[in-house]
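Before any further analysis, backbone shapes were mapped to integers, which produced the following:

***
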Amino acid sequence: MSDHYMSSPAINYATAARAVAIGIAAGEEAGVRAVVSVVDPAMALVAFGRSDGATPHSVETSRRKANTAASTRRPTGWMEGDFAIALPLGTGGLLTNILGGVPLRFGETHVGGLGIAGGTPAQDAEIAALVLERLGADPIRS
């Protein structure tokens, strides 16, 4: 490691695109028109997909869920009280506490975040967990 820079792992496009395809397919299995966003640890969008007929607002919601999971390294939905309200306001809407966002880890290496939107928050969280399993990523931990 240099005194002048850091190296940061990030999800590659091929894996991110696979996560999107898995998420859309898992949504179909659950009867959900899913929207799937994958971001790197710096919250840069790597891959995105939207089921035909998905609601327009789910596009931004999925991205915000992915951003939150990537930046906090925790699944969305853990915040309580005033913080759950202040976080979206304080970040200009970049982050959210709505269920359906999960960090992406492989062998304990954090590489980004996944956000699922389109169903109920509980459905989105279930789909996100399925994506992790089918992708071979580390499972959700609290």
About this structure: The domain at 13-135 is CATH 3.30.450.150 (Beta-Lactamase). Residues 36 and 49 are 5 Å apart (CA to CA). The chain has a mean pLDDT of 95. The chain has four helices and four strands.
